[in-house]
Amino acid sequence: MRTYRYSLKALRDAALAYTLEKNPDLASLSRELGSIVHRDAQALADGLTDLRQRHRGFERWLLGRRSHPGVSVLVMAWPPGYSTPSHDHAGLWGIELSLYGALEVESWSRTFTSEPWQLRGRDWLGPGDATWFDADMPHMHRCRNLSRQETALTLHVYGGDLEDYSTYELAGSERFRHSQPQRARIAGPLRV
Predict the structure, then answer these.
(1) Is the CA virtual torsion 146, 192, 60, 105 positive or negative?
(2) What are phi and psi of 169, to 5 degrees?
(3) Residues 6 or more apart whose Cβ sits within 8 Å of residue 139
(4) Apex CA 156: angle with CA 154 and CA 162, to 5°?
(5) pLDDT band for position 1 (cuts 50, 70, 90)
(6) Nearest Cα to 104, choosing from 158, 146, 138?
(7) Is pLDDT of 75 > 60?
(8) pLDDT exceeds cutoff 90 at 173
(9) C-alpha separations of 62 from 89, 129, 170, 188 in Å
């Protein structure tokens, strides 16, 4: 039987292996990561029980990082019913994949910064499901844990370190949003 540490290492190693070029094939990487989660779902759920029961709010845990080309791999814990503000990813590409629980991801994009954000769609992610975004188009989304009782866990792979980003709130008009700079915090490293 595989342990959750073995599964986390497999997820980290796959993310780092698939991202050796500047613009990796995010669909292929998402399929590879999803297959690992489907194969090892119970080991991940059992092994990450501590993250699901911490009751400390939304947390980001570093699973792996590489400098050239820049890649970061994180596990995030989403308390019951938690929802992020609408936010960007500072021009990075990214993948978000459910490890445990269900997440709703509502996405917007725009062609030029002078244009209003346009709703692209809504995805519902269960264990092994992923959504991704490219770095070449301005992207913003809002994520929400769909459970009111359980903490959800997700794996995030970004094309660099997501340290600074912006959140967006509707300005007086429904068409335009005003941005606020933010600083991402990491709760600590996950050892594998």
Answers:
(1) negative
(2) -125, 145
(3) 88, 89, 107, 108, 109, 133
(4) 130
(5) low
(6) 146
(7) yes
(8) no
(9) 16, 20, 31, 6
Residue 177 CB-half CA count within 13 A: 21
Instruction: For the chain, give the DSSP string.
Output: ---HHHHHHHHHHHHHHHTSSSS--HHHHHHHHHHHHHHHHHHHHHHTHHHHT--S-SEEEEEEEETTTTEEEEEEEE-TT-BPPEE--TT--EEEEEEES-EEEEEEE-SSTTSPPEEEEEEEE-TT-EEEE-SSS-EEEEEEE--SSS-EEEEEEESS---EEEEEEE-SSSS-EEEEEEE----EEPP-
| pLDDT on residue 33 | 98
Residue type, 164: D
Question: Could you tell me how far CA 142 lies from the centroid of its own chain?
Answer: 11
SS3 state at 52 = helix
For residue 146, give both structure tokens: 């769909």
Strands 118-125 and 86-87: unpaired
What does the pLDDT read at residue 31?
98
The helix/strand count (H/E) of the chain reads as: 3, 12
Percent of all residues in the chain with a pLDDT value above 90, rounded to a whole number:
64
Q: When comparing pLDDT for 171 and 44, which is higher?
A: 44
> What is the distance between the alpha carbons of residues 167 and 19, in angstroms, rounded to a whole number?
27
